[in-house]
Amino acid sequence: MGTLLKFYKPLFSIRFSSFPNSLRSVQLRTHSFNNPKRRNPIRRCFSSLSPSSQPLINGTTLDKMDGNQQPGSPSSELWLHNTMSKKKELFMPKVEGKVGMYVCGVTAYDLSHIGHARVYVTFDVLYRYLKHLGYEVCYVRNFTDVDDKIIARAKELAEDPISLSRRYCDEFIQDMVHLQCLPPSVEPRVSDHMPHIIDMIKQIVDNGYAYRVEGDVFFSVENFPEYGQLSGRKLEDNRAGERVAVDSRKRNPADFALWKSAKEGEPFWESPWGPGRPGWHIECSAMSAAYLGYSFDIHGGGMDLVFPHHENEIAQSCAACKQSNVSYWIHNGFVTVDSEKMSKSLGNFFTIREVMDLYHPLALRLFLMGTHYRSPINYSDVLLESASERIFYIYQTLHDCENVLSQHDKGLQESIPPETLNVINKFHNDFSTSMSDDLHTPVVLAALSDPLKTINDLLHTRKGKKQAMRIESVAALEKIIRNVLSVLGLMPTSYSEALQQLREMALKRAKLTEDKILQKIEERSEARKNKDYEKSDAIRKDLAVVGIALMDSPDGTSWRPAIPLPLQEQQVAAT
Fold first, then answer.
1. Which of 31, 261, 457, 460 is the most buried (most CB within 10 A)?
2. What is the three-class DSSP state of 356?
3. Mean pLDDT of 332-343
């Protein structure tokens, strides 16, 4: 890698071992913006995945549901909503079988909130699905570690801005690990890419799209007639979107900073315009071009980045290189609190850590995927409890499968009955159709119900079927569900471990211990023996109020996490 990075040596954070299907080979090179010969996309950060051979089930190949497909021609069409055209478009990459994707990362000055989580879960699902279809994907997600907010926070804490940002970059990475977001191919940081940023600003100035004022450099929006094409804003309307107060030195109030002159006590870098640091928008333009070229497939982020950030990125990139082109601009909707966007500036946010302290990370991931990525999600305890209960049910069903299948010969070749094949094929079709229709994850999650119900029917009722046929059916259903969960990023390392964690978090929310629940179960059992059904029902209801459901069976009484009774009643009232 040192040989390839002979022009410049950024400190990349690339991880290979923490996730399934991690990248096995990464090669990176950088671009010089002043040399046209180096403006082609130069990337070989694609994984080498091995195919698997699976039997056919009624014409459906199970390896179509496997995240480890061999790269090559994509296995089906994909339609994505393009913010630029305001409509769904058939995805057609610039290079057959390969995808370049850039997603704007966090400004690392504090712990990330679940609005951030939604962005990166959304694009993790897209990343996983593209790989599932057989594409080789170079996924670039940056860190902004040089910014006004970082500097302000560092002053509050009397800490070096770069050190503070590095610490919160590490915290963010840990959050992504817990949410099972695959590591991107590259995670560039602004502080490592000053030569690229300065080089790009020089090119924009030389091309007549920027001007210098007292050590600052501003982009002239009037010189770029296409400004506003992404957001649909007219130039005279753009003033309201400025991220900072209007500078009277600007030729037009909508002009934005490419380079900011150094101020006392702030980090700075030398440049042709004097010491300073880059503006917010130029950073992503430079880093995306450095790894994907000026022309690539997908640029994504939250809806709040459409204007001004992505609008300004388009202007900068086109000003630096006329051939600049991104095929698909993709944006996810907000997480709201009482119908208001969740944000740090409004103070109405919950950090990922705060939520994960009470709810399993994969329950949070399921919650975020339970609404289509372009629609807003209103944060609520009801929805998180519902997601937690749902994920428990999924893992409990698959855990039961695992236990049964471990007791039987894996070499069974019994035929699967038509009714089970119909469930499998319908689920496969629902998955493929929904995911290919702009990543409609809520439909996929709803479609899980039939195969899960079928598994439970097969496990807990015989219905006259031969044992071997039942086991083959369960194995086939478990496999397709497991493969879908892998594509969605919902597959745990261990079902039993995830179930135990879900129980522990339910106890924490209920402010109970397992010993206390077992004591209540014993008290209820005694009450039932004494035919004191009023007391028995009261114990059950008291536990239900705090989210603990009791389940009676011939083997005794057990408990599981459930939506607390008041929240269930709230759900019913809302419908």
1. 31
2. helix
3. 87
Contact between residue 318 and residue 228 where contact means Cβ atoms under 8 Å apart: no
The residues pairing with 128 across neighbouring beta strands, listed in sequence order, are: none
Structure-derived torsion over alpha carbons of residues 30, 34, 37, 39, reported in degrees to the nearest 10 = 50
Q: How many helices (H) and strands (E) does the chain have?
A: 17, 19
pLDDT score of 346: 77
H or E, element range at 550: strand 548-553
Extract the tokens encoding 177.
Answer: 């690990």
Handedness of CA 125, 497, 500, 402 (dihedral sign): positive
Copy the structure tokens of residue 202.
């020089």
> pLDDT tens digits, residue range 511-539?
999 999 999 999 999 999 999 999 999 99
Q: DSSP state, 158?
A: T
List phi, psi (to 5°) of 379: -65, 130
Q: Are 497 and 142 in contact (CB under 8 A)?
A: no
What confidence score (pLDDT) does residue 413 get? Answer: 67
Would you place residue 241 in the very low, low, confident or very high pLDDT band (cuts 50, 70, 90)? very low
SS3 67: coil
What share of the chain in percent tops pLDDT 90? 75
* Whole-number Å distance between alpha carbons of 163 and 278: 18
30: left (phi > 0), else alpha (psi -120 to 50), else beta? beta
Distance of CA 71 to the CA centre of its chain: 22
How many Cβ atoms from other residues are within 10 Å of residue 539's Cβ?
Answer: 18
∠ CA 510-515-517, rounded to 5°: 50
**What angle do the packed helices 361-369 and 114-132 form, to 10 degrees?**
80
Average pLDDT, the chain: 86
What integer pLDDT is reported at residue 74 of this predicted model? 64
pLDDT band at 345 (very low <50, low <70, confident <90, very high): confident
Predicted pLDDT at 20: 30
SS3 408: coil
Question: What is the per-residue pLDDT across 89-121, written as a single tens digit (0 to 9) for each?
Answer: 999 999 999 999 999 999 999 999 999 999 999
Angle at 548 (CA atoms; ends 542, 551), nearest 5 degrees: 100
Q: What is the pLDDT of residue 24?
A: 28
Region for 101 from its dihedrals, namely left if φ exceeds 0, alpha if ψ lies in -120 to 50, beta otherwise: beta
Residues whose CB falls within 8 Å of the CB of residue 210, separated by 6 or more in sequence, listed in order: 201, 204, 217, 218, 219, 220, 258, 319
DSSP string for 313-359? HHHHHHHH-TT-EEEEEEEEPPEEETTEE--TTTT---BHHHHHTTS
What's the first-to-final CA gap in the chain, in angstroms?
58
Across 314-338, average pLDDT? 95
**Neighbouring-strand partners of residue 548:** 561
511: helix, strand or coil: coil
Residues in the chain: 575
